[in-house]
Design brief:
Layout: H1 6-10, H2 12-18, E1 38-41, E2 44-50, E3 59-63, E4 68-72, E5 75-76, E6 79-80, H3 90-104, E7 110-113, E8 119-120, H4 121-127
Length: 132
């Protein structure tokens, strides 16, 4: 995880209680990722970019060889992630999409969000109302 989201792990038990859930004590973080982190899996190299806004430590995982981006809750097809939760910020999220994600990845990159259907950089530049 990114260091800027560590507070979420530390507060996970109290957050769970807020929703009426019991949450076990989380294990300590093994590795904090940052933009120098490179993960190699079965011949595929994944890089990380910090894209705060949905949360302070939100990251996108990029597979440049296959032009895929695992973007979590940063951006969805014709939408964006929530910014009303702890640590979220609309202007920061928009800046992350427009000035970080879109400048790192070309129009032909596929975006795979944390949920909902996939999309592309090109389609989101063209039709995402939250980025106008």
């Amino acid at each position: 995880m990114h260091k800027n989201d560590e507070f979420m792990i530390k507060e996970s038990k109290s957050q769970a209680r807020f929703f009426g859930l019991d949450f076990p004590e989380p294990p300590p973080t093994d590795i904090f990722i940052d933009e120098k982190t490179v993960l190699k899996l079965n011949g595929t190299e994944l890089i990380f970019i910090n894209t705060p806004g949905h949360s302070p430590g939100s990251v996108c995982i990029i597979d440049k060889n296959n032009k895929n981006v695992f973007c979590g809750d940063l951006i969805f097809k014709n939408s964006i992630g929530r910014t009303d939760l702890q640590g979220g910020d609309l202007n920061t999220l928009r800046n992350s999409v427009l000035n970080k994600l879109f400048k790192t990845c070309g129009d032909d990159y596929r975006l795979f969000p944390g949920h909902m259907e996939d999309t592309s950089v090109k389609d989101e530049k063209k039709s995402n109302p939250f980025l106008k």
